[in-house]
Write a structure and sequence with these properties.
- This protein has about 290 residues and is of the alpha+beta class.
- Helix content is about 15%, strand content about 30%.
- It has a single domain (about 1-285), classed as M1 Pyruvate Kinase, Domain 3.
- It has 5 helices and 16 strands.
- The strands form 4 sheets. The protein has a 7-stranded mixed β-barrel.
- The longest helix is centred in the middle third of the chain and has 10 residues, at about 175-185.
- The chain is globular, with a radius of gyration of 18 Å.
């Protein structure tokens, strides 16, 4: 059954930095080649870090001068907010990033999955676990925390599934219907797709309203020649409130998602059958 059309494809060379819009992509076990192939590591507290801990990462942009291969590695070009260019293979890249972020970091390509110490969680900012989680997810004392039991259990020990820099799963899908619904709930806010870091943005069929993709959890989608298995809705964290570029800081967006959308926006997915897809392809529920 056709449920929509693929409208946008996004790839994020460096975890938590603004990514690049592309017209087509191949899909393999680790999603889109080159997606989250680089990340920064906190050399003060340890651990791979994203914008949950270092919000300024969202103000940087990253792209590939050449399309990365299936191994997901490739030289990434980073642009700081003031326009300063950095290249991932520049020996001074880590020092320049550290100066900008005000924190000692290093820049790392993906490491093999058996290098567990590389992926192990760094020291928390708060000794109390609930306080730490409320900080990461941006929850107020009266708001519920997400149900973390739906995620891979190794995420309690590691920042990401070892061998990847994903938060949990290789792909994030988001519908235009959900974006429009959220915008209607917060008419004064800038509901910019870049806040939410999707890989695929789907325009649903005429008349579809609401947070449509939540109903796809546990089901499969065919897009182009690829088949994706939708896993769970994506509980949103403090990242969606951060400002970057012309997009202002806005805590109201997260308050609204917690109150009116069961904390979620978009759904995670895994690749069930390798293939390729392009903007304009039909999206079918199978």
């Amino acid at each position: 059954m056709r449920v929509g059309t693929l409208k946008q494809i996004w790839r994020y060379p460096v975890k938590s930095m603004e990514g690049e819009s592309i017209n087509s992509a191949t899909f393999g076990p680790n999603g889109i080649p080159g997606d989250r192939a680089w990340a920064v590591r906190d050399e003060e507290k340890g651990g791979i870090r994203g914008a949950k801990k270092i919000p300024a990462l969202m103000t940087c942009k990253a792209g590939y001068p050449e399309a990365p291969g299936e191994q997901r590695a490739g030289k990434a070009e980073i642009t700081l907010p003031d326009g300063t260019p950095l290249c991932s293979d520049d020996p001074e890249a880590a020092a320049k990033l550290s100066e900008f972020l005000g924190k000692q970091v290093t820049l790392w390509p993906l490491q093999p999955a058996d290098k567990l110490e590389h992926y192990r969680r760094g020291a928390p900012d708060h000794e109390d676990l609930e306080q730490e989680l409320r900080s990461i997810f941006g929850r107020t004392p009266d708001e519920p925390l997400p149900d973390l039991t739906v995620f891979p259990p190794e995420l309690m020990e590691f920042e990401s599934p070892p061998g990847t820099y994903f938060d949990a799963f290789p792909l994030l899908l988001l519908t235009e219907s959900s974006l429009q619904t959220l915008q209607s709930l917060v008419p004064e806010s800038a509901v910019d797709v870049r806040r939410f870091r999707p890989n695929l943005v789907i325009a649903t069929e005429d008349g579809e309203t609401g947070f449509v993709e939540n109903s796809w959890a546990g089901k499969s989608l065919r897009i182009g020649s690829a088949t994706l298995k939708v896993t769970v809705p994506c509980p949103r964290c403090v990242m969606v409130t951060h400002g970057f570029g012309e997009v202002p800081k806005d805590p109201q967006i997260l308050r609204t998602l917690v109150r009116d959308a069961e904390q979620n926006l978009g759904v995670y997915a895994e690749v069930e059958s390798n293939g390729a897809a392009a903007v304009g392809d039909a999206v079918e529920l199978i």
